[in-house]
Specification:
With about 425 residues, the chain is of the alpha/beta class. Helices cover about 45% and strands about 15% of the residues. The protein has 14 helices and eight strands. β7, α13 (about 360-370) and β8 form a beta-alpha-beta unit.
Length: about 425
């Protein structure tokens, strides 16, 4: 029995060692594909965060291939442990978990008296339509609500791959309509001072919702008064823009991952991911049409540095287009919306980060709004990377650039 137990222990130890070696090798390979420019804030910490996130993703991948669980479940579980800091409500803030038309929400209400109807903000969290949650967005929403004395409603929309397009957008619309209908009576919020916004894919949802509502309403009480877009992902047509080249390997969002998230949200067919990255899904006629909105020539000259080079588009592939054609719809890619619709959207705030693959999406959308006469405020984080705001007040995961970025959002919200 003693020899058998020893053999069993040795066997388990060998399996565990093999698992660790495999994990270390895969993490090392991923790290070799990453690149953190010198100008990024807190580079060593971002390296550590990247190692942690890559490790979680690889463990999830291994467990999924062993048939034990889904990778996305492991990632969501780990992010909830790493990025959620459960704290009691700060003085001056009343927090409640509610449901708006079957959509879970968390409402942050300042307790200080207000002389009139208070401002409101519906906040849609990021996470590639696949991860993210009300809990992960909690610190951001608390800060905005408390510092700007605004009632913030964080929306827990449905996630892919369980619920694909248009589930997330539909949930955001339901929550927005519900809040606008009860804002004054139940929350003391002036419905004419309610904005929608979010970070990353949450910014995508906010912009898409504004365009959807612009088609349906007259732009008065039933529509948001502003859109707050924090490093939004706004188009699925051109992954060769300067920022997609310059920041293609900067954590925490790689160029390839951006396309992967789009495909997961759209239909789950990630087999065409490389084709989409190369641009073979866009017909020449569409390319000419999108060029008036997506051309690098529309960017400020200072953003064309750091080694950008134009890329010759590949031949059009009709089969790839058939798989992903829904991704070119403005409700998925708001940057591709028609002028007459974008022109009717409310004023906007756009936050961009220098070392973010999505930087140019935000810059180009800002220009579109300005060209169409839509008021737009812009804040650029010169040392920021994608997701910087989500690392506010996260203990050892916090980054110093997060708070100034949040303060720029607060200052804009205070103008509503």
């Amino acid at each position: 029995m003693g020899v058998g137990l020893a053999i069993l222990i040795i066997g388990f130890a060998a399996l565990f060692a093999a698992f660790l070696l495999l994990l270390i090798g895969l993490v090392y390979a991923e790290l070799m594909n990453s690149e953190i420019p010198p100008g990024v804030t807190s580079r060593p910490k971002l390296h550590a965060v990247h190692i942690l996130f890559v490790g979680v993703a690889i463990v999830g991948r291994i467990l999924e291939r062993l048939g034990l669980c889904q990778q996305v479940s492991i990632i969501r579980w780990a992010y909830a442990r790493l990025l959620v800091c459960r704290r009691p409500a700060a003085p001056g803030l009343h927090i409640r978990d509610l449901t708006f038309g079957e959509v879970p929400v968390r409402v942050y209400q300042p307790t200080a008296p207000s002389s009139g109807g208070r401002r409101g903000l519906l906040y849609f969290h990021g996470g590639g339509w696949v991860t993210g949650s009300i809990d992960i967005a909690d610190e951001v929403c608390r800060y905005i609500a408390k510092e700007s004395e605004t009632t913030v409603v964080s929306v827990g929309y449905r996630l892919a791959p369980e619920h694909r397009y248009p589930a997330a957008l539909d949930d955001c619309e339901v929550a927005t309509h519900h809040f606008l209908s009860v804002a004054e009576a139940e929350f003391g919020v002036d419905p004419r001072r309610v904005a929608v916004g979010g970070d990353s894919t949450g910014g995508n949802l906010a912009a898409a919702l504004c365009q959807r509502l612009a088609k349906k309403t007259d732009g008065h009480l039933s529509s948001p008064c502003a859109q707050v877009l924090i490093y939004p992902i706004l188009q699925m047509a051109d992954f060769s823009l300067p920022s997609y080249q310059q920041n293609h390997a900067v954590p925490i969002l790689f160029r390839g991952r951006a396309a992967f998230y789009y495909l997961q949200y759209l239909n789950g067919d990630v087999s065409v991911c490389q084709d989409v990255l190369e641009g073979s899904h866009v017909h020449q006629d569409c390319r000419l049409q999108y060029g008036k909105w997506l051309s690098p020539e529309l960017l400020p000259p200072e953003f064309l540095a750091r080694g950008y080079r134009p890329v010759e588009p590949p031949p059009y592939d009709g089969e790839v287009y058939h798989v992903v054609r829904g991704g070119l719809d403005p409700e998925v890619s708001p940057l591709l919306g028609e002028d007459e619709v974008v022109r009717r959207t409310p004023p906007a705030f756009v936050l961009t980060c220098e070392y973010d693959v999505l930087r140019d999406d935000g810059l180009l959308y800002r220009k579109r709004l300005e060209d169409l006469g839509v008021g737009v405020a812009w804040h650029h984080v010169p040392d920021g990377f994608h997701g910087i705001v989500s690392f506010y007040n996260c203990g050892w995961l916090s980054f110093p650039a997060a708070r100034p970025a949040l303060d720029s959002i607060v200052r804009y919200v205070e103008t509503l």
